[in-house]
Amino acid sequence: MSREDSQFKLRMPPELREKIEESAKLAKRSLNAEIVARLEESQFRTGKPTELPQASKAREMAAVSRRKMAAAIRSEILSALQYAISQGLSEAPVDLGGFSLDELNEHEFEDVFLEIYPELTAAGYGYEWDKRHTLHIDFSSPE
């Protein structure tokens, strides 16, 4: 950002500011840079792009999308576990067919599951893939 960029005051609830500050820390950028990046991403996603974004910006936006995908997948895992436990099962199949996992290269795929795999392992779960559509989470064996 340059000093010539326009400035304006922004009011937001303290809880929202805390969440965005945390995201900014994770992304290693300032609060202002985080807000600007989110607005740019939103504009690119929902508007009709008229300019080709720089490749570095495209990589950054794709990484943000992968982090969002990881959070959504984690939520699906929790729902599947909740259902399996409530039904007395010892395995939870997680249907991830609604995500574009087949289109990710190996690095992008691993990026999505970077935090999910260690969390499952640390909690004592086993897991196995049925292609890239169904993640089977097993909790039948004691640790």
Automatic annotation (TrEMBL):
InterPro entries per the UniProt record, alphabetical: Arc_DNA-bd_dom (IPR005569), Arc_rbn_hlx_hlx (IPR013321), Ribbon_hlx_hlx (IPR010985)
Lineage per the UniProt record: Bacteria, Pseudomonadati, Pseudomonadota, Gammaproteobacteria, Pseudomonadales
Domain Arc-like DNA binding: 2-45
The protein, known as: Arc family DNA-binding protein
Membrane-spanning residues: none
Keywords linked to the UniProt accession: DNA-binding
Organism: Pseudomonas typographi
SUPFAM superfamilies in UniProt: Ribbon-helix-helix
GO molecular function, one term: DNA binding
Keyword DNA-binding: yes
